[in-house]
């Protein structure tokens, strides 16, 4: 992203996913003879950063759980039950499913447009 | 009364007949700006003879004016011929004490409108670079202050040009300046942006691959004093040290910052230079490069220091322009975005963030906090680790840990402001159809 655009965490998570995917891309590059030690060092540094961020997120979750206490978990269950139909850990479940739904929606939308453009180009060539 | 000369030329490359009226007082005669080598001297003489024979200079000129005309004519009449891509390798200087030169040459364009306060610092930082810069052209966009005088006072090698009337946007001013570029590489720098002494030396080697068309540098605010500057400081640390290197790894930087980027001149001309169809000319240009199938690179070692908005008034102008520019670029380039791997995911993620941020920050979380539980306010800090950890690590590496730590609250305030402006811009551009066309300076 760039400065001036607000982030709600989705962007950050997307970029963390890109970091996770880096080794696979680098293996592909190595097979084509385009890899280098510097690139692997860069990936290692990003993975280190990724580990620290995840550790901090876990710590933050623990602090929030401690701060909200059992009183909060009651509302969490009630508020999200309608979304998931499951009264046990339903906020966690709802967040997870909504996150997946967001990701799938965006991906499907983009690739749908892409396919549409490709088909339109084929028809235009005819 | 200002004397003017009309430079008329037939552009060999484009076939266009180009007429430019330039106030003579804006030119500094600059014997040193012409290369002291034998080949360039003969070229200058050839051009001067051509000018005299053809009578292209419609007024009689004084000797300094002839010298300036000679240089400009050499730029206009002798554009770089089509040739193989030249890598910007640094070649050693011939004379001891001279700075190393870049193969292919580099021209720096500095568009300036009422930048009398900052332009001298910018020019001096360019002159103090560790490598030789062939031409420094300041485009004084009909400033009402002393910008032109300040620029001329910086040295005889500075060429100051002034369009007949105010261009109205940075893109138009840069396009005006492009008429005078004859080098293999062109760099655009904002008039309020200073460069680190080795910035160009670190930036140019990234043109190592023939398909690299643009290289952008790292941006850090020059002043970090007010809440707005502090918020922007954290934004830049996060964007340029966390997002941008990842984007660069996937060879898809989202934007080559307009305040400090270098371009292959031929590619720039092929694209049509800076477009005025959006108010986000740098993003527009970056995505045009992707459309051309060429690459954009990011150099984190090449650092520049722009002056950022110091109060809400200027910050709002800048955010209005940036957010509207983003929305306009999406409208213009949506096909390129969809067809460019990684870029489409980045833009989609950004759009998703934009779409839900206003809803979440301004509506959902306050309602939940009021009607369900105050603990929901903690959700405002859900992504704290993903932002704070990288920022503090990078700030620590730069020796600015405490400055960054004390600036983080300002970033959270700026996030609310950003959310408001980006939501408004997207509403105006996509729903309200009230497009922004006027380019307003951000400070």
Low-confidence stretches of chain A: none
Determine and state the CATH class of the largest domain in chain B: Alpha Beta
Give the strand order of the largest sheet of chain B, numbering strands 1, 2, ... along the chain: 7-6-5-8-11-10-12-9
Number of H- or I-type helical stretches of chain A:
3
Rounded to the nearest angstrom, the radius of gyration of chain A is: 21 Å
Taking all residues together, what is the mean pLDDT of chain B?
79
Number of distinct beta strands of chain B: 12
In angstroms, what is the radius of gyration of chain B?
23 Å
Order of helices and strands of chain B: EEHHEEEHEHEHEEHEHEHHEHHHH
**What is the assigned CATH homologous superfamily of the largest domain in chain B?**
Spore Coat Polysaccharide Biosynthesis Protein SpsA, Chain A
Low confidence ranges of chain B: 1-86
Please tally the β strands of chain A and state the result.
0
**Chain pair with largest interface:** A-B, 46 and 56 residues
Largest sheet of chain B: 8 strands, mixed
Per CATH, the architecture of the largest domain in chain B is: Alpha-Beta Complex
- Domain unit count of chain B: 3
Helix content bin of chain A: over 70%
Topology of this structure?
The complex is a heterodimer of chains A (126) and B (443).
Chain A: H1 10-31, H2 37-84, H3 90-125
Helix pairs in contact in A: 1-2, 2-3
Chain B: E1 4-10, E2 17-23, H1 38-54, H2 63-77, E3 90-91, E4 101-102, E5 106-112, H3 119-127, E6 135-140, H4 147-152, E7 158-161, H5 170-178, E8 185-189, E9 193-195, H6 199-203, E10 212-219, H7 227-249, E11 260-264, H8 265-271, H9 281-291, E12 295-306, H10 312-339, H11 343-371, H12 384-397, H13 401-431
Parallel strand pairs in B: 5-6, 5-8, 6-7, 10-12
Antiparallel strand pairs in B: 1-2, 3-4, 8-11, 9-12, 10-11
Helix pairs in contact in B: 1-2, 7-12, 7-13, 9-10, 10-13, 11-13, 12-13
């Amino acid at each position: 992203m760039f400065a001036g655009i607000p982030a709600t965490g989705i962007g950050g998570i997307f970029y963390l996913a890109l970091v996770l995917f880096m080794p696979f891309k680098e293996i592909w590059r190595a097979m084509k003879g385009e890899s280098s030690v510097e690139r692997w060092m860069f990936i290692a540094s990003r993975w280190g950063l990724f580990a620290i961020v995840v550790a901090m997120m876990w710590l933050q979750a623990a602090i929030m759980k401690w701060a909200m206490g059992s009183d909060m978990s009651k509302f969490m269950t009630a508020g999200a039950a309608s979304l998931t139909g499951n009264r046990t850990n339903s906020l966690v479940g709802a967040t997870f499913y909504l996150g997946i739904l967001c990701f799938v929606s965006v991906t499907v939308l983009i690739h749908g447009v892409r396919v549409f453009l490709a088909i339109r180009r084929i028809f235009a060539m005819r | 009364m200002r004397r003017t000369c009309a430079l008329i030329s037939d552009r060999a490359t484009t076939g266009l007949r180009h007429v430019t009226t330039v106030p003579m007082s804006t030119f500094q005669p600059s014997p040193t700006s012409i290369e002291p080598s034998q080949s360039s001297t003969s070229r200058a003489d050839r051009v001067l003879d051509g000018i005299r024979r053809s009578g292209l200079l419609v007024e009689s000129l004084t000797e300094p004016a002839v010298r300036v005309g000679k240089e400009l004519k050499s730029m206009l009449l002798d554009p770089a011929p089509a040739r193989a891509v030249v890598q910007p390798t640094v070649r050693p200087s011939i004379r001891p004490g001279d700075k190393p030169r870049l193969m292919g040459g580099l021209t720096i364009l500095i568009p300036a409108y009422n930048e009398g306060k900052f332009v001298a610092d910018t020019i001096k930082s360019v002159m103090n670079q560790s490598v030789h810069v062939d031409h420094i052209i300041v485009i004084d966009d009909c400033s009402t202050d002393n910008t032109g005088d300040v620029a001329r006072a910086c040295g005889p090698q500075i060429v100051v040009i002034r369009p007949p009337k105010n261009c109205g946007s940075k893109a138009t001013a840069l396009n005006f300046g492009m008429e005078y570029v004859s080098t293999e590489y062109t760099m655009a720098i904002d008039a309020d942006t200073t460069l680190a002494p080795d910035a160009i030396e670190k930036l140019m080697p990234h043109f190592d691959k023939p398909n690299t068309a643009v290289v952008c540098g790292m941006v850090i605010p020059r002043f970090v004093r007010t809440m707005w500057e502090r918020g922007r400081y954290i934004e830049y640390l996060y964007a340029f040290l966390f997002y941008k290197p990842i984007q660069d790894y996937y060879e898809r930087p989202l934007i080559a910052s307009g305040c400090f980027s270098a371009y292959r001149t031929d590619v720039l001309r092929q694209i049509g230079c800076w477009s005025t169809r959006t108010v986000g000319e740098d993003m527009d240009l970056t995505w045009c490069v992707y459309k051309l199938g060429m690459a954009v690179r990011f150099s984190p070692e090449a650092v520049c220091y722009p002056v950022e908005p110091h109060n809400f008034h200027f910050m709002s102008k800048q955010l209005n322009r940036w957010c509207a520019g983003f929305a306009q670029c999406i409208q213009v380039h949506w096909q390129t975005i969809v067809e460019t791997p990684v870029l489409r995911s980045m833009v989609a993620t950004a759009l998703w963030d934009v779409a839900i941020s206003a809803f979440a920050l301004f509506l959902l979380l306050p309602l939940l906090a009021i009607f369900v539980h105050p603990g929901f306010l903690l959700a405002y800090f859900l992504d704290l680790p993903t932002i704070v950890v990288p920022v503090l690590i990078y700030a620590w590496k730069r020796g600015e840990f405490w400055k960054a730590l004390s600036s983080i609250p300002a970033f959270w305030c700026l996030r609310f402001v950003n959310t408001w402006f980006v939501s408004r811009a997207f509403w105006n551009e996509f729903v309200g159809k009230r497009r922004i066309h006027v380019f307003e300076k951000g400070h």
